[in-house]
């Protein structure tokens, strides 16, 4: 059974795994490696879950005799000789087979280093040491101190896939009044829910470069989740960052630059959490492709390992997570992949050393769904909550936490204080977001209606309350509450605005755009018939004939493309196709529209049109689903014959405008320079208001103000070795070396002097702008190192370290166990056997707190402003428009790090700030961007700190990464 089928069947609560029970050791006896020993994971099983039938026993002599019916014994010698020969051959073959099996086992064991290549960092730092969280931790400590052991386990363990109404659910701590939590995807809206907005995707949001608009979308996201009863929103996504342009989930994030990702993530989180919903920064970290992302999912026993150096990790992949923590994100989701051959959800350096110590994260770490690969080891490494609660396989009902976590505390293998911190982090986040406010978060029934008012598993009003179990109990699970807003507050308006501002005009010869609804312009006069003839071409201009939600989790490319697929996708309440908006915008009294909503034109097709609008696309998505063999894209070309469609139309039509809906960069080289292709728009993934948003830009109701959040190259190879998806495994644990370091996307193009088709940050407007009068004002003098890490003045909560009485964790005497539901209880006190537990190597080593730490997001000194960059921006064109003022930094050459004596290499330039400004025609304004110490520093591997290098730092300002008319030194 494929995972897609598992998901589908689980919605009816019918799934029953046929696979054998996987190998698992009790948490109380887990070994000392940073994750479950990789050579002892279960062997891979096919996606279909097939297992061979058990072998039959040996035949009796009588049965053998029956194989030679009617032959006297004397006649059987030749047969016996032949049989002996066969047996000899079979023995040789069997010996060879055993040799191959032995070799396979040896390769399995040697596939990756046993303990990984990530250094140990223990123990897990306790939360509650920073001022912004102080009061929440005081309240949380008071509550957790009253919890029983099973209650602490309840709130740190999911109840199991589809056991409750949300995609992730924890059980309550009833004795202290802590409710069950609902965790729900996601970054584009409320997954598997009704009457909720299908927002433009993250890549479209990043293309707006509009901080205020990003915040507003985040706030509306938070409001909708809160009104549906969701406690934890599983987004935004900032990993994958977009190292590989064909990455299947790049579209969930905001673009291929850490600063753009960081600012957009922070603004989104602020919006979500201002509505009292916990946001989740995901996927932590270096989760850059879908192929081999998860153990067993791609028929490899281990997930891919992203092997990355310390500097690239800090300056690229951690950057947006630091920004997210700085604004107080409540949760961080660790990813499926390994990092330096240690699973991200069991990597103590990543979780304890970097996230909780260096970056000062005060919330809770949750696993991606089934990303946890060990028990005690992952808890010691910093994992605070497992999701969805199941163990190594979907719906196996055998959690790596749950009762195993209870046993591990009772037998002394997991320190009580670690479980207390896990529980306190969850409760503190709940208090921090004000979810104890009964006005916003009512009590559970019967005292109130404080539960999710929708079900992820059925569209019916009445359904099972525990659909993944054997419980037949039903209730009203879908109340069909509309959370999209009304009137002027209808969220579709905001979604349309975001989609329009995230639309990028990259070519506009002879100002063919914007269009006139009447068709005719001063430059283009009517022909003999008088009517302006418009042809609309391409399947992407129309609708999926079976509806926009025809394919589970949007996993197909039919009709107009408004979203990628996977857990980040949502149900469309409606989807406006481009053809509908075009027909309602053109004046049909003077315009004749012909729509050919297919990518296949008739053989003898001739245009006869004055204007041709061609819509093409390119789709991708999450790895548990495939469409036409695609998850990560197989290439960067348009799909479904889009290139050929454009070429055919442009051969006949003198004015051809191409609109591309896509999950990321698309190679346009097969037709971009054709003389009749006059304009090209990259519209990304616009969400439910797709047609209206593209019409806004095509007809100039809004300025074309989107800017590229990625580089558009001329071929896949131009992105360099680091930009290539690994489509075939290079071992049982696929190894992906991030050898390019900092040089991803535009940084690679700049370093290799490759001229892209369209550079990062590029985009045209319907008006023109000039930049002038650059001034660099020093706000704080240059010094190499940040201030010393602040002395900690707030102590974390403390609790009794006494191990509870095992009888307190027994199942209640009268208790109805639901099939495959995860409980915190044990069956007998005899299960608890104490002994010496082999803690991980380095567990008792004294760790030195990072000098780069001391506050949320790192040392507060890193965020002190050092330079005020200011310029004059003037609208020199004919109409009101928006421009993105982009600030890039180039570091000195020949920098030597005094801690290592090594030369430090830098990208040619790196984005460090931006502001989007609207100006009326002829107006001028002063634009300011402030640069912090972190913006002006590099990560020193030797000092383990951020360092401002000696020498002149060049600050350049302009309209894109390669259009920087102003520069100065600091």
From TrEMBL:
PANTHER family: BETA-GLUCOSIDASE, BETA-GLUCOSIDASE E-RELATED. It is an enzyme of class 3 (hydrolase). Its EC number is 3.2.1.21. Belongs to the glycosyl hydrolase 3 family. The chain crosses the membrane at residues 85-108. InterPro entries: Cellulose_deg_GH3 (IPR050288), Fn3-like (IPR026891), GH (IPR017853), Glyco_hydro_3_C (IPR002772), Glyco_hydro_3_C_sf (IPR036881), Glyco_hydro_3_N (IPR001764), Glyco_hydro_3_N_sf (IPR036962), Ig-like_fold (IPR013783). Its main location: membrane. It catalyses: Hydrolysis of terminal, non-reducing beta-D-glucosyl residues with release of beta-D-glucose. One of its GO terms (biological process) is glucan catabolic process. This is Probable beta-glucosidase E. One of its GO terms (molecular function) is beta-glucosidase activity. Residues 1-76 are annotated as: Disordered. Residues 883-961 form the Fibronectin type III-like domain. Keywords: Carbohydrate metabolism, Cell membrane, Glycoprotein, Glycosidase, Hydrolase, Membrane, Polysaccharide degradation, Signal-anchor, Transmembrane, Transmembrane helix. It is found in: Cell membrane. It is a single-pass type II membrane protein. Beta-glucosidases are one of a number of cellulolytic enzymes involved in the degradation of cellulosic biomass. Catalyzes the last step releasing glucose from the inhibitory cellobiose. Pathway: Glycan metabolism; cellulose degradation. Residues 46-55 have a biased composition (Low complexity). It comes from Letharia lupina. GO terms for cellular component: plasma membrane.
């Amino acid at each position: 059974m494929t995972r897609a089928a598992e998901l589908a069947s689980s919605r009816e609560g019918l799934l029953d795994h046929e696979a054998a029970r996987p190998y698992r050791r009790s948490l109380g006896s887990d070994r000392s490696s940073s994750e479950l020993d990789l050579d002892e994971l279960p062997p891979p099983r096919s996606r279909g879950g097939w297992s061979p039938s058990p072998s039959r026993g040996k035949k009796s002599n009588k049965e053998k005799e029956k194989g030679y019916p009617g032959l006297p014994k004397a006649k059987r010698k030749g047969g016996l000789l032949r049989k002996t020969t066969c047996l000899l051959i079979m023995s040789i073959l069997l010996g060879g087979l055993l040799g191959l099996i032995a070799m396979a086992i040896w390769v399995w064991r040697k596939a990756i280093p046993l303990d990984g290549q990530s250094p140990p960092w223990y123990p897990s730092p306790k939360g509650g040491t920073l001022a912004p969280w102080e009061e929440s931790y005081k309240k949380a400590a008071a509550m957790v101190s009253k919890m029983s052991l099973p209650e602490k386990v309840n709130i740190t363990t999911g109840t199991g896939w589809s056991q409750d109404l949300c995609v992730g659910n924890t059980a309550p701590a009833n004795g202290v009044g802590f409710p069950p939590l609902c965790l729900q995807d996601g970054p584009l809206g409320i997954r598997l829910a009704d009457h909720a907005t299908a927002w433009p995707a993250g890549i479209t949001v990043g293309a707006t470069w509009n901080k205020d608009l990003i915040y507003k979308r985040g706030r509306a996201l938070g409001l909708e989740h809160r009104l549906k009863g969701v406690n934890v929103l599983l987004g935004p996504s900032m990993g994958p960052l977009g190292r590989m342009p064909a990455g299947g989930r790049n579209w969930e994030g905001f673009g291929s630059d850490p600063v753009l990702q960081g600012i957009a993530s922070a603004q989104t989180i602020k919006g979500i959490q201002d509505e009292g919903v916990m946001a989740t920064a995901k996927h932590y970290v270096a989760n850059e492709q879908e192929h081999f992302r998860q153990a067993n999912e791609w028929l490899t026993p281990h997930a891919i390992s992203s092997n990355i150096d310390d500097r690239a990790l800090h300056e690229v992949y951690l950057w947006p997570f630091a920004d997210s923590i700085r604004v107080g994100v409540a949760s961080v989701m660790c990813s499926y992949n390994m990092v330096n051959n240690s699973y991200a959800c069991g990597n103590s350096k990543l979780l304890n050393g970097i996230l909780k110590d260096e970056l000062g994260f005060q919330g809770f770490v949750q696993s991606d769904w089934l990303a946890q690969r060990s028990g005690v080891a992952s808890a010691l490494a910093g994992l605070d909550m497992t999701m969805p609660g199941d163990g190594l396989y979907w719906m196996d009902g055998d959690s790596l936490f749950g009762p195993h976590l209870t046993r591990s505390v009772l037998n002394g293998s997991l320190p009580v204080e670690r479980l207390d911190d896990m529980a306190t982090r969850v409760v503190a986040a709940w208090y921090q977001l004000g979810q104890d406010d009964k006005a916003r978060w009512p009590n559970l029934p019967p005292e109130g209606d404080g539960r999710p008012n929708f079900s992820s598993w059925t569209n019916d009003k009445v359904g099972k309350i525990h659909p993944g179990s054997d419980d037949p109990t039903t209730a009203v699970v879908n109340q069909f509450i509309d959370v999209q807003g009304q009137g002027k507050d209808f969220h579709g308006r905001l979604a349309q605005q975001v989609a329009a501002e995230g639309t990028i005009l990259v070519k506009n010869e002879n100002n063919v755009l914007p269009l006139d609804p009447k068709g005719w312009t001063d430059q283009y006069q009517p022909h003999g018939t008088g009517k302006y003839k418009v042809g609309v071409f391409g399947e992407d201009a129309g609708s999926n004939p079976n509806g926009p939600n025809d394919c589970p989790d949007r996993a197909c490319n039919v009709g107009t493309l408004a979203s990628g697929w996977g857990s980040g996708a949502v149900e469309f309440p409606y989807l406006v196709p481009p053809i509908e908006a075009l027909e309602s915008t053109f004046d049909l009294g003077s315009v004749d529209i012909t729509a050919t909503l297919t990518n296949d034109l008739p053989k003898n097709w001739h245009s006869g049109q004055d204007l041709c609008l061609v819509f093409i696309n390119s789709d991708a998505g999450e790895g548990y689903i495939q469409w036409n063999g695609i998850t990560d894209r197989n290439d960067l070309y348009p799909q479904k014959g889009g290139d050929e469609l454009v070429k055919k139309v442009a051969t006949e039509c003198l004015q051809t405008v191409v609109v591309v809906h896509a999950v990321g960069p698309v190679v346009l080289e097969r037709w971009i320079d054709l003389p009749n292709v006059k304009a090209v728009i990259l519209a990304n993934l616009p969400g439910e208001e797709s047609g209206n948003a593209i019409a806004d830009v095509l007809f100039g109701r809004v300025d074309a103000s989107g800017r590229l959040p990625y580089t558009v190259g001329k071929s896949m190879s131009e992105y360099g070795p680091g930009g290539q998806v690994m489509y075939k495994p290079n071992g049982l644990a696929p190894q992906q070396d991030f050898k390019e370091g900092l040089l991803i996307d535009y940084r690679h193009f700049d370093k290799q002097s490759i001229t892209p088709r369209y550079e990062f940050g590029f985009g045209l407007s319907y008006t023109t702008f000039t930049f002038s009068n650059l001034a660099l004002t020093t706000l704080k003098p240059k010094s190499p190192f940040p201030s010393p890490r602040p002395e900690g003045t707030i102590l974390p909560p403390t609790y009794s370290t006494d191990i509870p009485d095992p009888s307190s964790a027994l199942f209640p005497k009268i208790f109805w166990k639901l099939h495959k539901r995860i409980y915190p209880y044990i069956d007998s006190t005899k299960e608890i056997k104490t002994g010496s537990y082999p803690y991980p190597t380095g567990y008792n080593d004294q760790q030195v707190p990072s000098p780069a730490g001391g506050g949320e997001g790192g040392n507060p000194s890193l965020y002190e402003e050092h330079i005020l960059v200011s310029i004059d921006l003037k609208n020199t064109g004919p109409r009101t428009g928006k421009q993105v003022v982009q600030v890039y930094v180039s570091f000195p050459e020949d920098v030597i790090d005094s801690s290592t004596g090594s030369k430090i290499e830098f990208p040619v330039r790196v984005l460090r700030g931006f502001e989007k400004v609207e100006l009326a025609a002829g107006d001028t304004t002063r634009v300011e961007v402030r640069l912090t110490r972190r913006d002006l520093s590099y990560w020193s591997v030797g000092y383990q700190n951020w360092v401002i290098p000696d020498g002149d730092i060049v600050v350049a300002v302009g309209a894109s990464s390669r259009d920087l008319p102003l520069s100065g030194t600091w």
